[in-house]
Hints:
By secondary structure, this protein is of the alpha/beta class. It has helices spanning 11-28, 44-52, 104-115, and strands at 4-9, 34-40, 58-68, 74-82, 92-100, 120-128, 143-147, 153-154, 170-174.
Amino acid sequence: MAYRIEEMISEEDVNNRIRELGEQITRDYAGRSVRLVCILRGAVFFMCELAKRIELPVTFDFMSVSSYGSKTTSSGIVRIIKDLEEPLTGEDVIVVEDIIDSGRTLSFLKDLFRSRGAASIRVCTLLDKPSRRAPEIDIEVDYKGFEVPDQFVVGWGMDYDQRYRNLPYIGVITGLEEE
Ligand code: IMP
Ligand code: MG
């Protein structure tokens, strides 16, 4: 294995940014409660830290979807692996994602949650790779931690072939194409 992982965003920078996102959400939803929907497995670390920074009544739910056919390329097909446990009717939903790439996963989820009667749906993602957005996808990212270039990142919940989710910083994989 010829690839390497280099630090792209430090643990401290991620934590500081999550604190800001939490403060922003607290202001935007003042007087309401929010349902955080964590998209498993990548968004787990982000969701936990974010939830602690939101000073409002918060409830959680978890969903697992799969959009990836191979290690690093999107198949474009979204499959529900594990569905939500609570109804979304009338809830102010914030979908919590690790990273938005083509945007197909999120577009699918927003349509689904709308059809299930959520009162409002916003998106909070730790990372966004806007240069990778699929041409047919037009989604608004309401809250984002950082924009990143078109490189494969790991850590803070994100994996390469299920590894490196536990890295406390955000790293970038280099040298993959040499394999
Ligand atoms: P999308 O449907 O193409 O936007 O795919 C989003 C999902 O792909 C994310 O929730 C991640 O699970 C995965 N993904 C996309 N880019 C990366 C990356 O650079 N590192 C790790 N996972 C990624
Ligand atoms: Mg994911």
